[in-house]
Amino acid sequence: MNHPEARLPEVDHLRRRSLVVGVAALALCAGGAVFDPPEFFHAYLTAYLFWIGIALGCLAILMLHHLVSGRWGFVIQRLLESGCRTLPLMALLFVPLLFGLRELFLWARPEAVAAEAILRHRQPYLNGPFFSARVVLYFAVWITLASLLSKWSLEQDRTAAPDLTRRLTCLSGPGLILYGLTVTFAAFDWVMTLGPQWHSTIFGAVFMVGQGLAALCFVVVVSARLADRGPLSAVMSPQHFHDLGNLILAFVMLWAYMAFSQYLIIWSGNLQDEIPWYLHRMRHGWFWLAMALIVFHFVVPFMLLLSRVAKRRARILFGVAAGLLVMRFVDLYFLVVPALHPERLSIHWMDVVAPVGVGGIWLWAFLGHLRGKALVPLHDPRFAGMSEPAHEA
Predict the structure, then answer these.
(1) Are residues 205 and 258 in contact, defined by beta-carbon separation less than 8 angstroms?
(2) How far is 52 from 58, CA to CA, in rounded Å?
(3) Which residues are 224's β-sheet partners?
(4) Residue 374: phi, psi to the nearest 5?
């Protein structure tokens, strides 16, 4: 089948709207920061973690796709590439957090460090200059990987050079290792050290699974909206949605397994430094948020995605993926905000506005990278042999 180099329908209007909404929401948050800096930085951190999680998840899933060359990956490859190409923007959006280290982290407050021996012990690692240097290193790795993967893929569209496939595959293996290392340390730096007494060696893995799940859900939401229009309508079939649904199901189960394993090891081992982290999240309203995560982040999507029919119908899978995206934000909120308000469940207006602000800017960049490009890798030799859609019922 010859695929026309059809491209995404005009998105300028949606891009402008996203940019306007994002800038307006961030301006409101900036005003709120003047009156309540701690609330602003915690809300901004949660929002930032959610959107960079999608971008980094796109990078990881893209590299996984190049390693396994599954049929499911070619129909979302351009979406994944556009998602991870937003990482330079996310590096810029990280800058406000550098001005809020004192509001976010005890280790950034000299008086707290002087009062606690454990903070003094960790000061060679947990200090402002070294923290900033690690941020630069993380983004250097992520942006380099995303740039090379996207550059070689688009070059293959122009030249049809078969050797570019080998480059993409050879980079993706070491790239996944680098991704795992950098995301693990970023999760430790940006979230785990919000509570300096708490440790979890599996915390980075939980973050990686969450990022992969968020990215898959996002690209399913987008592709489900585009599946009935060219060019995806020419190649996307119920089988593709079935495969993507199976991947989402696998990530849902893996997230639940890792999150429960972390809890079980800490609780059964009676680890005195780690247990209070869970106690704060089992009281004063936080308990109900934890129950919501169990039900809507695992039980409900697990039961729905067991159905073959649900996975093969774009509208049903769209709803499941959209719901999981909401729960991904709730999960990050559950990780971050109790560090500021352990005594009560607190929802500040900036907790709602900040994700809209960061998300509006991120979507503007995402649509910009997606605009004007073929939505399928037309000249990838791996795609050529599997380009006929399967139209099963």
Answers:
(1) yes
(2) 10
(3) none
(4) -60, 135
- The tokens for 216 are 């898959």
| Cα dist from 271 to 205, 282, 335, whole Å | 20, 17, 19
For residue range 328-363, what is the model confidence (pLDDT) as tens digits?
A: 999 999 999 888 777 778 789 999 999 999 999 999
Q: Would you call 179 helix, strand, or coil by DSSP?
A: helix
* CA pair distance 94, 135, nearest whole angstrom: 9
- The answer to pTM > 0.90 is yes
CB 138 within 8 A of CB 185: yes
Q: Per-residue DSSP letters for 212-271?
A: HHHHHHHHHHHHHHHTTSTTGGGT--HHHHHHHHHHHHHHHHHHHHHHHHHHHHHHHTT-
Helix (H, G, I), strand (E, B) or coil at 36: coil
Q: Considering just the CA atoms, what is the radius of gyration of the chain in Å?
A: 21
Q: Is 198 in contact with 274 (CB distance < 8 Å)?
A: yes
**Could you tell me which residues are beta bridge partners of residue 7?**
374
C-alpha 252/C-alpha 194 separation (Å) is 26
